[in-house]
Amino acid sequence: MTNLAKRIFYKEFVSYRKRSSTYLSPIVFFLITIALYPLALSNDPADLSFLAPGITWICVLLSTLLSIQNIFNEDFEDGSLDIFFSLRVSTLTLVILKILVNWIFSSLPIIILSSTVVFLLFLPSESLVILLTSLLLGTPVISLFGALAGALSLGKSSILGPAIVLPLSLPVLILGTSAVTSFLNGENPSFYFLMMLAIFIFLLPLICYACIGALRLHYE
Amino acid sequence: MNRAFNSLKTFYHKLGSSPWFYRISEITIPYLALFSFLFLSIGIVWGVFFSPTDFKQGDVYRIIYMHVPAASVSQSIYYTMTVAAVVSIIWRMKMAGIFIKSMAPIGASFTFLALISGSIWGQPTWGTWWIWDARLTSTLVLFIFYIAIISLYSSFSEKKSADQAVSILTLVGAVNLPIIKKSVDWWNTLHQPASIKFTESSSISPEMLYPLIISIFGFYLVVLLSGLMAMRAEIAKREINKEWFKNY
Amino acid sequence: MIYDFNDYNLHVWLVLLITIALISLNLIVPKVRLNKLNKLKKIDKN
Amino acid sequence: MLKVDNLSYAYSDKYLFENLNLYLDIKTITKVSGSNGSGKTTFLKNISGILQDYEGEILYLDDNIKDISSPNIFYAGHKNGFKDNLTVEENLINDLRNPLFDLDKIKNYLSDFGCEVSFSTSLGNCSEGQKKKILLSLFASVKSDLYVLDEPFSNLDDEGIDCLNEIFWQKTSEGSSIIFTSHENQGKSSQEINIDDFKND
Questions:
Q1: Nearest by Cα to B117 from A39, C23, A14, A56
Q2: Pair type for strands D55-60 and D2-11
Q3: Which chain A residues are closer than 8 Å to B158 by Cβ?
Q4: Which fold has domain D2-198?
Q5: Which residues pair with D75 in a beta bridge?
Q6: What do you get for the CA distance between the two ends of chain A, in Å?
Q7: What pLDDT, on a 0 to 100 scale, did the predictor assign at position B197?
Q8: Phi first, then psi: what are they for D13, rounded to 5°?
């Protein structure tokens, strides 16, 4: 079993590494949207520093959404999904590993990059660690929902991605931003982190099995 | 006991077969139409025109006779769709898929009604058309869910897989809706806007309460009626070239 | 009474109108679809 | 080896084929022919367990194929399942159907097919014919009981066709059986089945 998992992981990792668009497009999208806010709202540091957590979170949410939607499309198009089902091994490993690799390549760079928000949006630097942990805890949940949207609308281009992912990621968005704002008001944000962790652990099996069911659909 | 269980099983089995459902619904629709029209008109007319005016909000409170039933109906439609989703996934019952597909637009329209009436009601009391309070935001999320379900259904050509996909999405939505409601409430307490409590209207006097109950009942009957009709249309669409439908 | 039209009552009438519109929409659309399908069935028959 | 009894498959209420019966003994080569879009590919996907929503039963070594955890079946479809941005070597190593890692066996078969392609070039700039030969040499090097191949002879040159027939013969002599589809009359086969005979609309 682990040999299979290792091989799937290695293949996904190599194919993501070789296709630079998987990690470049979220980064570029993130930077552009971050730059939009000061231009659109105001460049007064006081305003921006108040809005910084929310803006960062929205930009991370949108860029993760951008790259997660066609997580299964490529395998569906080139037939490796058919071959995978012909081998009749556990699809759970495939789904979990694909989400993990996609998260590593699309969300992790953005989280690291979001530390530049301290300069761009005048986020108070002591709250950066809190922002990063909230992003680290939140983006896996977004990737889970994105994978489900990808599995449901395999190969069909539909409004489904945002229509599914954004409402479902509301709890994580709210908890993430209020973690940072409550830290700035001096409270202890551990409540929000624990809640986000709880949501992730609760959703992981549920959404993975939903993804498997959704993938199976296209083979009936 | 065994006989009762068998009859229950046969009833459940028959419920699944579309010809039986088609015939039964044809009989019940006229009565249902009569009752729902009756309850609906009594409830709304009594509430909107003849119930006493509220001393605090004046006549604008009469919108509750449309808003409260619409909000409660939109919630319960989603719960019934969740039950149908479970049935459709476990027993792969065709009728459950048809139920979800026909109820989704109805749920969406009543959620839309709840949103519109909520914001119209809010306008005189707060001076703005929309206010980000917990209940209205959760209703907006529910509305987006309905739209997601409808658009997912239409993106499938094959009916069988469409039903399954929609059931999966409904279930995931059903699990997440309470979480979303909870987090919206947290968010609401965190950014508590200084405004009156929107939802709990002042202690509602009996004269106002009776029409409300009747109109809620009327709303549920109308939903049931339009649900049955939508399911008949969906059955016709799916079984147009089936024998039983041809010589029906 | 609600008959005299000050601006508050307008809201109530507006909501009443939207409710009736939505409910009748939900009732008419399936009816129309069913009639169309039945007509289609008749054409196939003969 | 594999027994198919009255298999029928419907796609949105239209039957592609109905009560199809077939018996695959070991050491046999079966050719599935039929007009385009007649459900040949669907039939192969049913046999290899990819598509399971059929009526009827498929028994593999006389237990139902749906219950077997990982049957020793090699499936190669129209789409070769390789990724264009990876190199030939990475594609071959990472292909889940290829349990062993030695590439020299695949290299020999590739030279038999008369296709000289360096293993470090990315698959993207190989021609369709070369991709097909790479897939077929992978097929040749993997040992499994049942080989399910979809259009193996399409866009193959004559040299490739002879080499493939030779590999077919060699595989069956080792005790496994092959089922493949092809609409031209290439490829020698011990039994043939035409999907169009099982369509009754």
A1: C23
A2: antiparallel
A3: 220
A4: Rossmann fold (3.40.50)
A5: D148
A6: 26
A7: 46
A8: 65, 15
Mean pLDDT of A128-133: 92
Binding-face residues of B in 10-49 toward A, CB within 8 A: none
Domain spans in chain D, listed from the N-terminal domain onward: 2-198
Comparing CA positions, the residue from A26, A31, A111, A61 lying closest to residue A39 is A31
Say what the pLDDT of residue A135 is. 94
Of C11, C16, C37, the CB nearest to B233: C37
Number of neighbouring beta carbons within 10 Å of residue A126 = 10
Strand order in the sheet with D2-11: D14-24, D2-11, D55-60, D63-64
The residues facing D147 across adjacent strands are: D74, D178
pLDDT band at C3 (very low <50, low <70, confident <90, very high): low
Q: Classify the phi-psi angles of D122: left when phi > 0, otherwise alpha if psi is within -120 to 50, otherwise beta.
A: beta
In chain B (248 residues long), the average pLDDT of successive 10-residue segments reads 70 73 89 93 86 73 88 94 94 91 95 92 79 86 93 86 92 93 85 51 71 92 94 88 77
Q: What is the pLDDT of residues A61-106, one digit of tens each?
A: 999 988 888 888 888 888 888 888 888 888 898 999 999 999 999 9
pLDDT digits 0-9 by tens, D99-116: 766 788 888 888 888 778
Put simply, whether A217 touches D (Cβ < 8 Å) is no
Q: Do D82 and A78 lie within an 8 Å CB cutoff?
A: yes
Instruction: Please give the model's pTM, rounded to 2 decimal places.
Output: 0.88
For residue D31, the one-letter residue type is K
Whether C and A touch (3+ CB pairs < 8 Å), yes or no: no
CA distances to B42, B114, B121, C4, D168 from B211, rounded to whole Å, are 7, 18, 18, 22, 81
- Torsion sign across C-alpha atoms A206, A208, A209, A210: positive
- Cβ pair A153, B155 in contact under 8 A: yes
* Tokens (6 digits) for C2: 């609600």
Residue A142 tokens read as 């977004």
Domain assignments of chain A as residue spans, ordered by start: 3-217
List chains touching A (3+ CB pairs under 8 A). B, D
A89 to chain D, any CB pair closer than 8 A? The answer is yes
The shortest C-alpha distance from D43 to chain B (Å) reads 18
H helices of chain A, where?
2-18, 21-40, 45-68, 73-77, 80-87, 91-102, 108-113, 117-120, 128-152, 160-168, 170-184, 190-217
Interchain pair B232, C30: CB under 8 A: yes
Give A152-195 pLDDT, tens digit per residue: 988 777 778 888 899 999 999 999 999 999 998 888 899 999 99
The domain ranges of chain B are 64-192+205-248
Residues in chain A with CB shorter than 8 Å from the CB of D53 are 219-220
Residue A153 to chain B, least CA–CA distance (Å): 7
